[in-house]
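Hi again,

Forgot to attach this to my earlier email, sorry! This is the prediction with manganese (II) ion bound. I've pasted everything inline since the attachment limit keeps bouncing my files.
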Amino acid sequence: MAYVLPPLPYPTDGLEPLYDQATLETHHGKHHAAYVEKLNAAIAGNAYFAGKSIEEVLADLEAIPQGARRAVINNGGGHANHSLFWTLMGKGKGGEPKGGLGDAIVKEFKSFAEFKKKFTTQTTEMFGSGWTFLTQDQEGKLHIRNLANQDSPISLLEKPLLLVDLWEHAHYLKWRNKRPEWVETWWNLVDWDKAEELFAEEPAWFVEHAA
Ligand code: MN
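Structure tokens for the complex follow:
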């Protein structure tokens, strides 16, 4: 068995003019594809991974056979993070969440505006490559987390609800080194309906590892 590069939920020009086609083509077709390829190479012939979703695998890093562990954290994390990232963007999106997640954000961060400000500030504090996430822990509390490289909050047993890619490959073609401009643009692509769905879901790995 092998992990598969999921198709984008829109054509490669589907996020234009905000996220340009050239960047999206390379980002999905080269970068994400490479994570999947390297992940599959690392686990080839290893029965441990048979029938396991990448989320299940990342929820228990200790259980990963040692020879494959680092490659799976990097490339499996890259696969999981990007797979989620594509589904949380769309054309004509942005705005604010309106359901249970919207309420939870107001409860935790006082207002959507405060949440957005805090999340944006954290993206500027990410040193090097990584992602800023909105996550929900096992007690239901929301967190804004910076994780380096392709580390996944699933390995902290937190459910990712939103994420922004802060690797240079996400923005360098169009915005060069101007990460804040990319992040400001990204807010206008966020699909809050999808984030609301994730908030309402109880994935098996999240339930199984509950304290
Ligand atoms: Mn990326």
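The two ends are 31 Å apart (CA to CA). The chain has a mean pLDDT of 96.

That should be everything now.

G.
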